[in-house]
Amino acid sequence: MDLFNTEDLKWNRFTGDERFDYPIDYSGALLSLRDDGHIDLLYRWEPNHYCHFHRHLAAITSTVLQGELEVIDYKDGKEVGRKIRRAGDYSHGGPDHVHMEKAGPEGALVIFHLYSPDGALVEQLAPDGSVIRTTHLSDFQSDRW
């Protein structure tokens, strides 16, 4: 699979609404889903746009393939750090990582691998930190994603 020629992938686009005071516009595509709790996803962000505020519920690795991605970390509802990940940067994190990601001026393309033996992947959060929705492996198996 050529990760830079993604026209044949089924992309799901996510945007914000009136609850969010920052521009949200990103898309995700399923690359691989296994019965043992492993999933690979490709995400792309529009230039200078965010993904939803969220919490990881699973172990995750990511590699920035194109562009740059700013990761804004939160703890107890307060921003605690920012880092810029550029093309080629690899990272690994565990559950309970609360953050947002924002693409740089050229957008971003990032591959993610998550491992969740219990099936829980991510909680999308409202600006106040309350859970809007939880994404599970079963959402990808049933095409509800």
Description:
Strands 1, 2, 3, 4, 5, 6, 7, 8, 9 and 10 form a ten-stranded antiparallel beta sheet that branches. A hairpin with a 4-residue loop joins strand 2 (25-33) and strand 3 (38-45). 23% of the residues are buried. The protein has one helix and ten strands. With 145 residues, the chain is mainly β. It is globular and about 35 Å long. The mean pLDDT is 92. It has a single domain (11-141), classed as Jelly Rolls (Sandwich).
Short description:
With 145 residues, the protein is mostly beta strands.
SSE order: EEEEEEEEEEH
Summing up helix and strand content along with how strands pair, one would put the structural category as: mainly beta
How far from one another are the termini? 21 Å
- How helix-rich are the residues, as a percent range? under 10%
Radius of gyration: 14 Å
Report the CATH C-level class.
Answer: Mainly Beta
Instruction: Describe the sheet with the most strands.
Output: 10 strands, antiparallel
Tally of distinct domains: 1
CATH topology-level name: Jelly Rolls
CATH architecture: Sandwich
User: How many helical elements?
Assistant: 1
In quaternary terms, these chains amount to single chain
Give the overall pLDDT as a whole number: 92
The counted number of beta strands is 10
CATH homology-level superfamily: Jelly Rolls
Point out poorly predicted stretches.
Answer: none
The amount of beta strand, in percent, is over 45%
Shape: globular
